[in-house]
Design a protein that fits this description.
Length: about 200
Amino acid sequence: MLGLHLRFARLALCGLPLLVGGCTTTPVDLAYASSAIAAAPVEQRALVSVGPFTDTRKHAPNWLGAIRGGFGNPLKTLETPVPVREVVRQAFVDALRARGLLNESGEGRFVLTANVVQFDTNRFVRREAHAKFAMSLIERANSREVVVELTQVDTIEGSLVALDTGIFGSVDELRADAEKTLRQAVDKFLDGTAFRQAIGAPQG
């Protein structure tokens, strides 16, 4: 009898998503934007080109995250229109351009590449977003890695003792969490000591 009750409970929880719209996939756009960036001095501009980025996450290339039900099952899936590695790469392109450091021709003194180890956003009880990028700055003249750094940012919102799960969670909130986490990870690397010293830029 207990087993029967448990089966009915599972069916009720699994059926609830159907009442609120079922399992859906939502395309989301992420963009890098910051209003607190100072452009580099003229002699330091156009130093950095952006090379290819890779993605070793254990997810599909465009998968970004999910709002999850009581069993951790995805109810609403977030995907990017282009592969996540390209989203991250474009964020670095935009951030370097905003700082006046991007070499648009691809012939900069330095080449920035990265591997996306983790980048995702999820809602079960709390909202979480995580970014972990293995960054590499290479001096073009001798192919020497002058900076090798693992940049990581984690954003956690909400409480584990909340009574509700992610069933009624907002895709827009998760998208905003992912965008904020991406921006913070990009700024953390580009404004960090190792990168600034390597390109001869003053510390912020």
